[in-house]
Amino acid sequence: MADIIKLLPDHVANQIAAGEVVQRPASVVKELLENAIDAHATSIKLIVKDGGKALIQVVDNGVGMSATDARLSFERHATSKIQSAQDLFNLNTKGFRGEALASIAAIAHVDMQTRTEGTEVGTAIKIEGSKVVSQEVSVTPKGTSLSVKNLFFNIPARRNFLKSNQVELRHITDEFHRVALAHPLVEFHFYNNGNELFSLQSTNLRQRIVNILGQRTNQKLVPVTEETQMVKVSGFICKPEFAKKSRGEQFFFVNNRFIRSPYLHHAIVAAFEGLIRKETHPGYFLYLEVDPAAIDINIHPTKTEIKFDDEHSLYAILRSAVKHSLGQFNVVPALDFDHDPNLETPYDYKDKGVEQPRVMVDAAFNPFVDTPKKSGVVQGYQKQSAKGWENMYVGLESKVGKEDDFSSVSFESDTITGSIFEGQKENWETTGTTFQLRRKYIVTTIKSGMVIIDQSRAHQRVLYEKFLKNITVKEAVSQQLLFPLSLNYSKGDIGVIRDIKDSLTTVGFVFDKIEDEEIQITGVPLLVPESEVGMVIDQLISDHQQEITGDSFSQTDVLAKTLSKTLSVKTGEQLDNDSQLALVNDLFACKESRVSPFNKPIYVTLSENDIDKKFI
Ligand code: ADP
Ligand code: MG
Asked: Which CATH architecture has domain 10-200?
């Protein structure tokens, strides 16, 4: 047989490598910003158009390149950052693979202008899909400007895979934040479609965090410092009362490089244990300095994961450093009249039993009845939500106060039994008796046997259909707040809120204003207790950041899912008999009662026959 193995031509190899290095516009942004930092720039400009699809440009005032270097920089494995394998163990730069520019040039139209100190003229190079179109002498400032246009122009499948401009811009912003947070001394300017999104002056770390995440962040930050032989830890954690539903504000930097480490993240979570509400996440900006020889950054092509020589000690050091700061800076909250006492988490929380969270349910809801009895329900809500929230945390009130009447969830049902199984009548003739199994399932009997219903999923389904209906027919009932509620968010989060504002309005949120870092709400959907509004919006932001939010259909769907997930009865909650029955009725009044909005089965049935078989 003839030889069949051939070496791939360079441009093909580059395109393949590009698949690994460049997933989306944000990957290009990361590589270009890091190159600028490696070139010792003190001022960096990032310019993008249409979420980076049309243009990504990074202009720096770094060391620049000679004409030869400029040309060579686009070759694969061309790097000035390492010379021998030994250098891999002493990395102080972001890049070292020499792959980024070659990869980017393989899948886009690239223009570079660059000049080094002390030379009069610089170099301009144009490359399209790995082909050098032109190379000229050029008059250009010291430093490098690299613009990347029409990303993935020659890989249509990749281009089609990109999300909406908004979503891509959000990813770019995330990368920008990571680089800007790692280098507070460097000045940054970030423009999108001609608007300046960020203008960051050279400053200290605290101020940089505040400039990026909003003025209100300042009061949240608690410094962390620790120095051992192995590692130097510095940075900030956010006070426990500011823990959020979304994971947005969690940053680890190792030797000024942003990294992800589920293991070290766990160390922080462990330090916060007992201080924050379940399902919320602590915020942190932690900077570790370690000997480059003690880490291996080589294990991930885009280099956000690294391996440490002694992870266990690092874990212990981090955890104790964070605990120490929490103890030192956060013991007695200052007297602050703007402060919501309900948000305070007592320190002795850990040693006390956990109270059942309370949930308010509009059992009067029936999608087939157009005017559910609302007035009574609303009152019930307000009463419950105020109490329920206080009791979520163990504090003085709950210690002193006796158990109130809200210890179990109560559905205010105007029972609609009888009519509910219509349409499924032949199968579903409930006897009207139910019981709760392990605070998780509701068991009820039907003519042919028995049904076991997952209470949380059932309730998710009921709420999901209700919200979906509200959104589609735009008849949400809003509950007016006595006082407008002000909530603070980062610029990025505010962007998300603006994107989904229309859908939020259709479910019943009423916005008074949405500003740079603050929103004001004057009305909330009927089912959302006021004390939960912040949580709900946090969750919405975080879900929307993860999902495709381009078209309005999916936006509506995500919104209804988030609300149903956040507000549903959870496993572990006790339901009284009326509530159980109401939930069963509501469930089977749903258009789809078999699966939850997240596609999980809601109930199983056991027929008499099935049971009989077990006794053979
Ligand atoms: P790496 O960063 O891994 O070395 P790149 O492909 O990103 O690989 O860049 C290749 C080389 O081009 C770098 O090693 C550096 O010498 C040079 N270079 C890239 N960008 C810049 C820049 N903005 N300023 C100066 N030199 C740069
Ligand atoms: Mg690089």
From this structure: 2-Layer Sandwich (3.30)
